[in-house]
Amino acid sequence: MSATTRHGAAVDKRRLILDAAVRVFARQGFHGCRVSDVADEAQVAYGLVYHYFHSKDEILDTVFLERWGVMLEVIAQVDAGEEPARAKLEAIASFIVDSYRHDPDVMKVIIVEVTRAANSFGRTHLAKIREAYAGIAQIVRKAQESGQLKRTVSPEFAAMAFYGTIEQVLTGWIFDVAGAEEAEFERAKRFVVETICDGLQEGGASGAPASGSRL
Predict the structure, then answer these.
(1) Are residues 70 and 85 in the same domain?
(2) What's the average model confidence in pLDDT over 189-208?
(3) How many domains does the chain divide into?
(4) CATH code of 24's domain
(5) Which of 106, 124, 151, 205 satisfies CB 3.0 to 4.6 Å to 198 for a cystine?
(6) Which among 158, 138, 154 has a CA at the least distance from the CA of 198?
């Protein structure tokens, strides 16, 4: 077996374990399962899990950092574009909602076990979580400076309100409080942006500057 083949096999096993862990964490909760449950779900030997990960905590860390890192890249790419702020926020909202649509278990684990776990994983990853807020705030700040959005709300507060609204919608779907049919995903993207942007829009929801308005 070549070195390349061995590396590929290792990556596959590691991915297999991570994917199995997501299903177990989503089904049983992080604190309600054991490493042996992950091994059983992945159909691998118990010791193989420890070959790739030192602990159950490291598995959860990896799941979070992988997916959160992708979101940070998306926010950065969107911010670098020339589109209006509303279109940028729509793109970010679409990415987050579609992430839930395509992989609800991962989003459930990230929201329930990490970002809302203020006394454990949430605090451990607070710096990474704040990076997302800072990226969204930067989009709002630039839009305020260019006159697209009002300055009546700070960029930091707007970012927290924007992401918090999306997270609350996803939480409703996770716990079956709100409907999660296909049409609801598209409505959610639009409603989140309208909720935040219409309140910040310079000149009102239409986007036209109000007569005599000042930033």
Answers:
(1) yes
(2) 71
(3) 2
(4) 1.10.10.60
(5) 205
(6) 158
Please give the residue range of the domain that contains residue 39: 1-53
61, 45: one domain: no
Looking at every residue in the chain, the average pLDDT score rounds to 86
Please say whether the beta carbons of 133 and 152 come within 8 A. Answer: no
CB 137 within 8 A of CB 155: yes
Listed in sequence order, the residues at least 6 apart from 167 whose beta carbon sits closer than 8 Å to its beta carbon are 111, 115
Beta carbons within 8 Å of 170's beta carbon, 6+ residues apart: 96, 97, 100, 107, 111
The token pair at 85 is 């702020």
- pLDDT bucket at 196, cuts 50 / 70 / 90: confident
Same domain, yes or no, for 27 and 82?
A: no
Task: Return d(Cα 170, Cα 14) in angstroms, integer.
Answer: 28
44-95 pLDDT, tens digit per residue, is 999 999 999 999 999 999 999 999 999 999 999 999 999 999 999 999 999 9
**For 99, left (φ over 0), alpha (ψ -120 to 50), or beta?**
alpha
191-195 mean pLDDT: 89
Reading phi first (left if > 0) and then psi (alpha if -120 to 50, else beta), residue 13 is in: alpha
How many C-beta atoms lie closer than 10 Å to residue 177's C-beta? 11
- Cβ 146 vs Cβ 138: under 8 Å: no
pLDDT at 116: 72
Burial 81-103 (b: 16+ CB within 10 A, else e): eeeebbebbbbbbbbbbebbbeb
